[in-house]
Specification:
- By secondary structure, this protein is an alpha/beta fold.
- The protein has a single domain, classed as 3-Layer(aba) Sandwich (Rossmann fold).
- About 40% of the residues lie in helices and about 15% in strands.
- An 8-stranded mixed sheet has the order 1-2-4-3-5-6-7-8, with helices on both faces.
- Strand 3, helix 2 and strand 4 form a beta-alpha-beta unit.
- Helix 1 crosses helix 6, helix 3 packs across helix 4 and helix 7 packs across helix 8.
- It is globular and about 60 Å long.
- About 40% of the residues are buried.
- The N terminus is likely disordered.
Length: about 325
């Protein structure tokens, strides 16, 4: 062995030892110094109702029934620090004009955060539970990002309960959808008890949250959303659903063929540039299915109701008004 290779081996050994020491230090810091029981205020200034308790677990939804007409159900996205705060501008816009429900999906907010399989089936069942137990008639669903897949499944399985879907920057329309799906090896690695909490804590520092959200905003992230994301990510059990998300458990490789293309309800897609998903399949979907329509909200990057609220509200209102006119 040459002198250089000996020195290189010693250097690599020192690096590995240093990395192990740093990892051990962070695990200890996560357990002893990070508060995972921060006070969590409501994400929305509205009544919160508890229901469910079956396969999807105990669920919560923010509710405002002061308006009349077809109910509107709002669904936040799935990410490392998701919450109903993501739909806050939409809730505030439409409350009082129609009944509005903002569901907190399993593993997030005040809904149950138990260590369970967070799959598309769990999330779809949660939506169906809301539709069947809290609403008297069909509703319009509005979902962000990956939650659009669950809303579409609920619409396909319970067509009488869903009048329409509005999908904001939905997933499942990119060129790589066949490679999407659960990776149990990755999930076992991420969720290993020794380091799962420490790993998650690295993802949800204030700096990490702001950096992540900056990718979804055309301008600077909403400060209220950043602050609430940090709080909701520091709750007991907060890591379970996000780590399942990172391992692909809630994704469906066949969502376009098995679900999107079989929908019969009117569907509106609002989109522009999104660093986390692509829309390559959208033109063909629009051309082949008359019930689908789309509108670009420019400029926006995944959260158009924050970036361009008036454009977004006008597009949604025109879509729903068209449904009313078609029914009259």
């Amino acid at each position: 062995m040459t002198r250089w290779s000996k020195r290189a081996g010693m250097a690599l050994g020192s690096l590995a030892g240093g990395a192990a020491l740093a990892a051990g230090g962070w695990i200890a810091y996560s357990r002893l110094a990070i508060d995972h029981h921060l006070p969590l205020p409501p994400a929305l200034d509205a009544e919160r109702e508890r229901f469910g308790g079956g396969f999807a677990g105990s669920l919560h939804a923010y509710v405002d029934r002061s308006g009349a007409g077809v109910p509107l159900v709002l669904l936040h996205s799935i990410n490392a620090a998701a919450s109903a705060y993501e739909v806050r501008p939409l809730f505030e816009r439409f409350r009082g004009r129609r009944p509005v429900y903002a569901l907190e999906l399993p593993g997030f907010g005040f809904s149950e955060r138990a260590n369970r399989p967070y799959t598309a089936r769990v999330y779809t069942n949660a939506i169906i539970d809301l539709l069947e137990t809290r609403l008297d008639g069909p509703a319009d669903l509005l979902a962000l990002s990956l939650s659009g897949e669950f809303a579409a499944r609920a619409a396909l399985e319970r067509p009488a309960r869903v009048r329409s879907l509005a999908l904001l920057s939905p997933t499942g329309l990119g060129p790589d959808q066949a490679r999407r799906g659960p990776n149990e090896r990755v999930h076992r690695l991420l969720s290993f008890p020794l380091w799962s909490q420490a790993l998650y804590d690295l993802l949800v520092t204030r700096r990490s949250i702001r950096s992540f959200l900056r990718q979804s905003f055309y301008g600077e992230p909403d400060d209220g959303l950043v602050a609430y994301s940090y709080l909701t990510a520091h709750q007991p059990g907060a890591r379970f659903a996000p780590l399942a998300f990172l391992s692909g458990r809630p994704f469906s490789p066949d969502i376009r063929q098995a679900v999107y293309e079989k929908l019969t309800q009117p569907v509106l897609v609002l989109y522009d540039q999104d660093p986390y998903t692509r829309f390559d399949a959208l033109p063909d979907l629009l051309m082949q299915h008359d019930n689908w329509q789309a509108q670009r909200i420019i400029p926006s990057r995944g959260l158009p109701h924050f970036d361009q609220p008036e454009q977004t509200f006008q597009a949604l209102e025109a879509f729903w008004q068209g449904l009313e006119n078609g029914a009259s």
